[in-house]
Fold this protein.
Amino acid sequence: MTSPEKEMSLLKEALLRWSQAYFEQDDPEVPDVEYDAAMRRLQALEAAHPEWATADSPTQRVGSAPLAAFQTVAHRLPMLSLDNAFSDTELVDFDRRVTEKLQVDVVEYCCEPKLDGVAVSLAYQAGQLVQAATRGDGSSGEDVTENVRTIANVALQLAGDNIPAYLEVRGEIVIPRMAFERLNARARESGDKVFANPRNAAAGSLRQLDSRVAARRPLSFTAYSVGVVEGQLPNSHSEVLRSLKRWGLPISEYMETVSGVAACGDYFSRLGAQRDALPFDIDGIVFKVNDLGLQERLGFVSRAPRWAIARKFPAQEVGTRLLGVDFQVGRTGAITPVARLEPVLVAGVTVSNATLHNADEIHRLGLKIGDRVIVRRAGDVIPQVVSVVPELDADAPPHNRESIVFPASCPACGSRVERAADGAVMRCGAGLECNAQLKAAIRHFASRKALDIEGLGDKLIEQLVDEGLVQSLNDLFHLDIGQLQGLDRMGVKSSENVFEALLRARSTSFARFIYSLGIREVGEATARALALHFLDLDSLLKATTEELEGVDDVGPVVADHIKAYTSNPLNQELLSSLIESGITWPAVQVDTGDGPLTGMLWVVTGKLLTMSRDEAEAKLRALGAKTAASVSSKTTTVVAGPGAGSKKKKAEALNIPVVDEEELIRTLGGRL
Ligand code: IVH
């Protein structure tokens, strides 16, 4: 019989893990009902045994009954804004004003990313969170305490020494990019409100009157300054932030102090180069005079401090015009409308195409050809059209706007297009009979992580399919050098190379083979898990949906996709023909349990310098470790390179050891 205390601690641990799986991996470990039941059980136990209830319990973050309206909160100290610098010259001018006023040669600056989210002020009384307010107009904002209490990384109770009797912490609330994409993808599927960008999503979530809704949004807080303080704080900005961190408040891991304006320029370029790889949107860098005494001497002009400046990056959202819409057929037959745009620079890159997701999205945007639109490009995500905007010149004669007609038949093969049963996606159902799907399947089949057929690039694939030389994946293995030489831009040497690459590709591994088939939602990790579980193709083909669900990494949806694939006679035929063509692999090496890293579960994140993440994972696995893409309570070690974000934070939160690349190399024992 478990004691209530033990049960409470087990429930807390499980709820924490489930909510991380839900928010950060978008991969719920349990259905909502089970989550809710566990939460209610913990609430009941806490009510019965208040002595064992803790401030960090997940019950403290579920939200409460909806408010009728937000109360207004007057800020005891106004929340100011920042002056902007749009060029290096403007940054140098700022530094000149600072140094002249202070009559010094060089000033130390604290550099931090300028997070693009919503500013809030959190009030802590005797270390306890008592109020959270939005910036509002700077003098007063809205009381969003109930919502902020649900944010996982906001400390409800500060811990540590010398906590001020009263402390107002200021910072930004954001939604990380990946979490935002998933939030929108889910909203698109279920017909809910889609947000234009992470900032709007964060603002919308924070302004939910029902904090139980806010609790389900992936909000994240970063502290960047303080307001009213009753108590002692260090005398530099960077040390103040470090104190906040010690008390349990998240600060930017990119914060650095530098000396002089040239070093500010360096920091700006360095972060700028990493901007796309960062887990969240930033719209610039904030440089603050680090010494608080000097800050005081500099003072303020109207609504902005003289001691700080925001050096802005090029905008991530820019206006342009929609010239037309193309329809692309993907590997699974999904038809995606793609906007053709008047080329425009977005965050430093020329964009002339953007995704429109699906037919519903076109409808939602009210989009017509000829419209002026806003495109957003952030991180590695494909550029998107986020809204239609009025003409710049309101007096201009009305534009000829043309409706966008979604094709009724597949633009590649002419088969009828159907709306998928599971949502907004329109699909061509012709499978590999459709040349567009065949081409995409070949690209995947030949890709580096699949059969790695060098030289079989897009242009060649286009020709092979268009000329009718390849009508199935298996035809690739029956091409002769003469046929290859007959194609555009294929000389003797390149034809021989492709031919040899095809010969080599026949020897592969079971996991790569499974991955190469392009079964829906079967990525590398799942393919590896399937290979390890079933060991041979026959067993995989015979597996029932239940058996498939027994594999790590495979849920009911993926199991259905696999079963749909393996039970299709056309696929069965393809698989036999591929084996007949000589595709082979060595027997699957089952973990013998004697590697030095056996029993460990590693996660590699961020950029590595001496090898790619894939290589690092392969080497770790060769030593017996398991590897995973996301951090959970089962993770034993995280390797974090530069740019590591939420995974590293999560590891730290879960007290999982985080090592750097050097340590990784040591672990691998020089096996480079
Ligand atoms: S300091 C008096 N630091 O930018 C200085 N602001 O235009 C107060 N912001 O409303 C701001 N990241 O919400 C500061 N690292 C950072 C910031 C930051 C984002 C936002 C903040 C403010 C706006 C100023």
Notes: Residues 72 and 142 are 5 Å apart (CA to CA). The radius of gyration is 28 Å. The chain is about 35% helix and 20% strand.
